[in-house]
Each structure stands twice: as structure tokens, then as C-alpha cells.
Amino acid sequence: MIQLSDFEKSLKNNNISNCYIFCGTDENLIREAINTMVNKFIDPSFKDLNYVKYDGAKVTNDIILNSCETMPFMSERKIVEIYRAKFLEDGNTKSSGEGKAMDFTELSKYITNLPPYTTLIMYYVFESERDKVSSKVKKIDGKATVVKVDKLKGASLQGKVKEIFQERGKKIDKAELSFFCSIIDNNMNVVSNEIDKLICYTEGRDITREDIINLMPPKSENDIFNLVDYLSQKNIKKSIDILNELIYKGDKPAIILYMIERQFKLLLGLRVGSDTGKGHEELAKSFKLHPFIADKMIKQSKKFTLEALRTNLKLCIQVESLIKSTSIDDKTALEMLIINTMITK
Question: What is its EC number (predicted)?
């Protein structure tokens, strides 16, 4: 069994097997890997003749065998793909559209005798990250090249996302790229859709962190306000409770941190403005806030000392740097932030 990165290296070296089985949670990544192979080894002029696809819920042993045995046309290779081949899962006794049961034992024997000009590709998609490679697939690992396609993370995810932006002719700076990858669900179909939205939203200008935030699913401003309010009261339990609730609802720690940092930045600006004699309406206009929200936040800012607001803002920046530069758990880092704000004066 190999990882996707190993498969990509073998393709770069023009190595191709007679049979591949792909499995993982991200169908988009699997499809992309298959398309890369097809584009590399099949002449586009004869693609319709030398690349055939079948639905794994309808295909039969006979269809697979006949397609694999048919000689390629004006090409050295033919690729036969069976997509969403759920018959590769354990306990699956699927029947084809013709009512014939898929004989996996027969298929596993056949793949050792595939014609040298044929590459048979099959894939199935895990329903969750907890799923493991089926015992059926494990038994034929070696007869076929099994490729485990895990979701991209860290540098691999950033590299892939940057590549997608470049393909679409859009530049994204390193800091914004890192932030985008830290808050996006690492499903490549979701990633691709969010990139398209971001490109349309920022047409003709550079992408900023605010743009990324604005296009993310709406977060509860009220929850962040309450969390910071409990920080002003030194109530660690209530603050942690809100943090846990936000994470439970699916909010990414990186975006929670950004919202807390943004709140302290606004509080500091409003507090300085208020202390220098600016009125609430003027401050609301300056910070682009609804007058009612501005009034609430000015009152909240006065629950902290100026020194505490500056210190808490620095703590947010330090935690952001810590998350980026170490392997610390994001949730643990946020809990540390909450605890550290409690001891500021």
C-alpha cells in the first residue's frame, strides 16, 4: 500500500501499474490523481476510445473483462476505470443493474492476468476518517497497487491550495494562504469552491485576511463578545465553556482566535478614542460599527485597563505565532490564551 505522494512520484518517473485501487475520504483528490494519470498516458485525440469508465454500482465481471481485453486504438495503453466501486468494501454484496452479483473472488484472480496494455483503476470512498482499508482490498494489495488517499494537511495542503490559485491566475500572499488553509475544511471539493468564491469577491485586487473571514460561514459575534466579557470578569469557566461550544458547533480554532484578536483590537481602538474625547457616534463611524454595537463595545472596553487591552492583544499574536511554529494542539493554545488573559492587569 502506498500514499498519494508515492503515486505522484511514480507517475513523474513514467511508471504505471496494471491495476490500481484508490481509497480515502476525499473523492476529489482521488479523481484528480486518476485524471493526471489519464492525461499523461492517453492521447487526447483517442481518449474516447482508450479511456472507459463504469459505475461500480452497475458494472459486472463480464463488462470489466471485455473492456480490459479489448486492444487499445492507436495507442500503447488503455485505461479502464470503475468509479465508486462499493463492492470493494467489506460486507458489500451489491448486485449490478443486470441483477448479477459481483464476483470479487473472480475479479481478484483476473487482475493478476491483465493484458500488458491495460490499466484497470477502481476506487471507493470512505464515509468517515475512521474508516480503514477493507480486508478485501488488503488481500489483493500486491496484485494491485493500493493507493491510500488521506486528506492533505500542513505544507501539503498549502502547496496544493497555492497551486489551485495559480491555475486560476490569482496570487495569494504567504500569510493569507496560511490563514486560509488553517480555517478551511481540508476537503478539496470544498477548498476549490471557496477559492472560486474568494477570487470572484476580490476581482482586481489582492486577497486580504478580512476577505477570507467575510466569505467564511457566519460566526457568532455575540459568542465572541460574551467570551471576552467573561475574560473581563476573570471568569475562566464561562470563557472555556463558550470556547468549547464554538468548537463543538464546528468553528475552527484559528478563526476563533482571529475573532478574539479582532475584538481586542476594536476594544483598544474604541477605548483610546473614548479616552481622547471622541463621541460614540464618531467612533461608530470610524470603526464601521452599528451605533448600538459601538456603544456596547465601548462599555466593554472600560472593563479592562488600557495596559490589559494591549497585553491581551499581544497574547493573541503570540498564540497565533505559537500555533504556526509548533505542533501544539490548537484548542490547548486557545485555553492557554484564556488563562493568560486572566492574569493581566
Answer: 2.7.7.7
Q: Is residue 171 a contact partner of residue 206, using CB atoms and an 8 Å limit?
A: yes
Ramachandran angles phi, psi of 337, nearest 5°? -60, -45
Q: How confident is the model over 244-278, as pLDDT tens digits?
A: 888 877 778 888 888 899 899 999 999 999 999 99
What CATH architecture does domain 2-149 belong to? Answer: 3-Layer(aba) Sandwich (3.40)
Task: Please name the helix (run of DSSP H) or strand (run of DSSP E) that holds residue 119, with its range, or none.
Answer: strand 118-125
- 90 is written with which cell numbers? 467489506
CA distance 323 to 318: 9
Q: Helix axis angle, 253-275 relative to 221-232, nearest 10°?
A: 60
For residue range 136-165, list pLDDT tens digits in order.
999 999 899 999 998 888 888 899 899 999
Q: Looking at residue 70, what DSSP letter applies? A: S
Give the amino acid at 30.
I
What does the domain layout of the chain look like in residue ranges?
Answer: 2-149, 154-215, 221-342
Q: How far apart are CA 240 and CA 227, in angstroms?
A: 8
Residue 91 has pLDDT above 90, yes or no: no
Radius of gyration of the chain (CA): 27
